[in-house]
Specification:
Shape: globular
Mean pLDDT: 89
Helix content: under 10%
Structural class: little secondary structure
Length: 110
């Protein structure tokens, strides 16, 4: 997965990618197009996702502790499962239609 992680960062395009179980802790992913991507059980702890297109992305069971989603497009994103949002930042993100049902948002900043 390290090679694919590097490809995602370098090319800046991961539309519709299956990133299930990926370890993206601390990755600088600013501005990447992750629309319709699947982050099922992925680890995004401390990842920088500012300005990313995350429209329709699936975050089932993902760890987003201290992840930075400021200014990201999260329209229609689906957050379900046992989430860890402590310290995650969502200021200025477009959250229209995002589904946070069953998510523990304690400690997240909006």
């Amino acid at each position: 997965t390290e090679y694919l992680k590097q490809e995602i960062i370098e090319k800046g395009l991961a539309r519709g990618a299956d990133l299930t179980d990926f370890d993206l802790r601390g990755a600088d992913l600013r501005g990447v197009d992750f629309s319709d991507a699947e982050f099922i059980d992925a680890n995004l702890e401390g990842a920088d996702l500012r300005g990313c297109n995350l429209r329709g992305a699936m975050f089932n069971g993902a760890w987003v502790t201290k992840a930075d989603f400021r200014g990201a497009d999260l329209r229609g994103a689906y957050f379900a499962g046992n989430f860890h949002f402590k310290g995650a930042r969502f200021e200025g993100a477009d959250l229209r239609g995002a589904d946070f049902s069953e998510a523990d948002l304690s400690g997240a900043k909006f």
